[in-house]
Amino acid sequence: MTTTVPLQIYSLTPHPSVEYWSVCKVEALFEIPFLDLVYKAAQVHRENFNPRAIQLSTLMSIKTGGCPEDCHYCPQSSRYQTGVQKQDLLEVDEIVEKAKIAKARGAGRFCMGAAWRGPKPKDMQKVTEIIRAVKALGLETCGTFGMLEDGMAEDLKNAGLDYYNHNLDTAPEHYRHIIGTRGFDDRLNTLGKVRKAGLKVCCGGIIGMNENRKERAGLIASLANLDPQPESVPINQLVKVEGTPLADAEELDWTEFVRTIAVARITMPRSYVRLSAGRQGMSEEMQAMCFMAGANSIFYGDKLLVTGNPGEDGDQLLMAKLDLEPESEENRYVPMDS
Q: What is the Cα–Cα distance from 322 to 311, expressed in whole angstroms?
């Protein structure tokens, strides 16, 4: 039975002082002529952020494969034959060494993912030990461990976790076509626990899973209407992996992905919009358009959880070509409340 999060914890109906984004209203943004939309998004970006600063995060899989969920995009599901080898939770020292390397190469945030439906109570001691050790390096910490039981978010917060990632993945109406082992409300329930514990939220979705434009608008509307809006919004382009049900998904035109970045920026002006999975298949020109349209965060490193990512040398070269620089305390622009 699906549990719905209480509205006072995390709601799809924002506070009256927050702009409500209906699906129709978001869909209307998608319909704006392409260059006008990018220009509008660039204006919003510059009002809220330094447009030359890119927040760099590194993502590491600390427990790989064997997940019982049936997410149609995921090569780590135990239901699909994708060649991903199951790996138990890594040791603390190994994770810390990777985090040290990430920091030395310019990452400001270290994100850790574990292929669970959700952690069991017996896992939490080691997970919190890992978080404390990474936090001690002076990095921001982010975790994505699946659905959380009562009290787990508080344990993660007390260990030093800064962000919790739990994506909505797709629009509520399209969700059942992508995942059958949990419901959309289960996502909201975990996000509610995360907010109640005082953690920052990293929450986005995946584009290119045979959804239509209205459903893409539905995803963005769902994210924008979270109250408060997520501090970080990863927008992923589907990485098609042989063996998953979405391996033969219809190709998405690159302009539609850029439109999605732009609409995310306009509707969530103070959120970091992360250009996430799928960058390995994007041209430099497409990525440049995404940055112009308001993306201001990337995953930095040659691997995400189990799929490829542009190498650090390539990212440094691209950022140099575009006169972009890693975000720091010195170049970060945070707008004053009006």
A: 17
Q: In whole angstroms, what is the distance from residue 54 CA to residue 288 CA?
A: 12
pLDDT digits 0-9 by tens, 36-54: 999 999 999 999 999 999 9
Tokens of 142: 């982010």
Closest CA to 165 of 187, 182, 144: 144
Could you give the C-alpha distances from 290 to 12, 40, 235, in angstroms and in order? 26, 13, 11
Helix axes of 152-159 and 184-196: crossing angle, nearest 10 degrees: 50
Three-class SS state of 226: coil
Q: Give me the helix-helix angle, 213-224 and 254-267, nearest 10°.
A: 20
What is the full DSSP assignment across 110-155?
A: EEEEE--SS--HHHHHHHHHHHHHHHTTT-EEEEE-SS--TTHHHH
Instruction: State the catalytic residues.
Output: 67, 71, 74, 111, 142, 202, 274
Q: Are 56 and 63 in contact (CB under 8 A)?
A: no
pLDDT at 308 over 50: no
Rounded percentage of the chain residues whose pLDDT exceeds 70:
89
3-state secondary structure of 71: coil
**CB hemisphere CA count around 236 (13 angstroms):** 22
Res. 258: pLDDT tops 90: yes
- 120-129 pLDDT, tens digit per residue, is 999 999 999 9
Angle (nearest 5°) at CA 117 between 112 and 119: 60
Query: Which pTM was predicted?
Result: 0.88
- The residue behind tokens 């691997």 is 303
User: DSSP 3-state assignment of 235?
Assistant: strand
Separation between Cα atoms, residue 49 and residue 81, nearest integer Å: 43
